[in-house]
DNA sequence: GCGCGTATCGGTCTCAGGACCGATGCGCGG
DNA sequence: CCGCGCATCGGTCCTGAGACCGATACGCGC
């Protein structure tokens, strides 16, 4: 039996969620909270398997409550359910330890599927949130680097922390050649030092393992 | 009318998708492809609004086909639909430009919702894929840097590309002090040059990567 | 053929970066 | 009180980095 805690400042929303969750076999709402502080307190006294958490709540917002609950019990799964689909919420929530992020206008059937998924350790985000998360992850198309293939190789090695001499050895060319390429990169990317090259490489997604 | 291209090496799957898509108002399958190369060719002759793409295909796999189609037409939306839910696929697909990633056992209703979402610019991933993407995103603060608060400030500025002199001006201290902090950072983080510091900062998520 | 871009190489020169030496003041805990 | 860590500052010394100068060779299109 998955023990669910519902945290929302609106009693109607809580009741609605409770009905929905209780209708799912294997799930049961064992507690409710109207504030973030209450949610933390309830979670502390009786650890939930899953928390349905609103973001906007008095005393302590849902993000901070999520952070504390997850800090106290890393096994806890938190599914943020909110009216808004704002970036700061999503990223903050994920960093705080939330497992999922859904909008309140999500159809009940999908919400149930999400609850199941989150309870089993998977994650679900609303479409917009997923898109932005992906964009953050592959924020490549930001600026496409207009450099030659060889320069790209050199840039990657620079971004890995190799010195010019080390790059020369790696590519089987002389130090002079590497310096030429680096200078060309500095010019093309508008960088002053190789540090800027490293930053550009990370921003462009050329590296990042 | 959203023009959809279905790419899968199995005719039955293609037929199934075609029926499903055509049943959605506003969507129509205008072409099919049995290989990645065919998909690229069809997309080149008649640009699709949306592509349903299998990963495992002869000649050219779905990832590479996605890369070429997206490179040729950045407006193209590609939804990867595959039997497997492997990491390399997901990350490769996203980097290649895919907008979504779903499993073939996804219920038709959810698949339709996904198609709509992708067509409208949003994204959808399978639960497992979303979880791993989130883990990648928030795996930053994994390695905690054992440095002082002041050193952290200096590190961030170094990672932003500032020279020691610029950092000194920013923090209202002398060049000597900055050099001391930088040296301390180099020692603590096991770095040889400030480039390594930048890398460490990005890996640790101290700066937006 | 000629121009152009790319990749390769060599030299000189200046300077920021970093090592290594020293120092002071301050807060904090044994 | 005394030791310790942190932040601050000053000096010397050496080296890699990068600018700037030059060059050759190759492939490509006009």
Automatic annotation (TrEMBL), chains A, B:
Which terms under GO biological process does the entry name? Answer: phosphorelay signal transduction system; regulation of DNA-templated transcription
Which CDD domains does this entry report, sorted A to Z? Answer: LuxR_C_like, REC_NarL-like
Instruction: Kindly give the Gene3D superfamilies that the UniProt entry links to this protein.
Output: 3.40.50.2300
The molecular function terms in GO held by this entry are: DNA binding
SUPFAM superfamilies in the record: C-terminal effector domain of the bipartite response regulators, CheY-like
PROSITE patterns (UniProt xref)? HTH_LUXR_1, HTH_LUXR_2, RESPONSE_REGULATORY
Respond yes or no to whether keyword NAD is given for this record.
Answer: no
Q: Show where the HTH luxR-type domain sits.
A: 140-205
**What keywords were assigned to this record?**
DNA-binding, Phosphoprotein, Transcription, Transcription regulation
Q: Read off the InterPro entries from this record.
A: CheY-like_superfamily, NreC/VraR/RcsB-like_REC, Sig_transdc_resp-reg_C-effctor, Sig_transdc_resp-reg_receiver, Tscrpt_reg_LuxR_C, WalR-like
- 4-aspartylphosphate modified-residue sites: 54
Q: What is this protein called?
A: Response regulator transcription factor
Q: Name one Pfam family in it.
A: GerE
| Source organism of this protein record | Nonomuraea rhodomycinica
- Which SMART domains did the record assign? HTH_LUXR (SM00421), REC (SM00448)
């Amino acid at each position: 039996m998955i023990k669910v805690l519902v945290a929302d400042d609106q009693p109607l929303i809580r009741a609605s969620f409770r009905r929905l969750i209780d209708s799912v076999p294997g799930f049961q709402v064992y507690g409710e909270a109207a504030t973030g502080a209450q949610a933390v307190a309830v979670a502390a006294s009786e650890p939930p398997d899953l928390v349905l958490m609103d973001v906007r709540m008095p005393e302590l917002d849902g993000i901070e409550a999520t952070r504390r609950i997850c800090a106290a019990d890393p096994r806890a799964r938190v599914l943020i359910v909110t009216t808004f689909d704002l970036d700061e919420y999503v990223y903050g929530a994920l960093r705080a330890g939330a497992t999922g992020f859904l909008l309140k206008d999500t159809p009940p059937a999908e919400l149930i599927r999400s609850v199941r998924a989150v309870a089993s350790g998977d994650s679900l985000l609303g479409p917009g949130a997923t898109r932005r998360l992906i964009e953050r992850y592959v924020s490549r198309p930001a600026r496409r680097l207009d450099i030659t293939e060889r320069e790209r190789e050199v840039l990657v090695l620079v971004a890995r922390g190799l010195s010019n001499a080390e790059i020369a050895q790696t590519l089987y060319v002389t130090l002079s050649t590497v310096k030429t390429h680096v200078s060309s990169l500095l010019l093309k990317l508008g960088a002053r030092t190789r540090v800027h090259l490293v930053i550009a490489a990370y921003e462009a997604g050329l590296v990042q393992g």
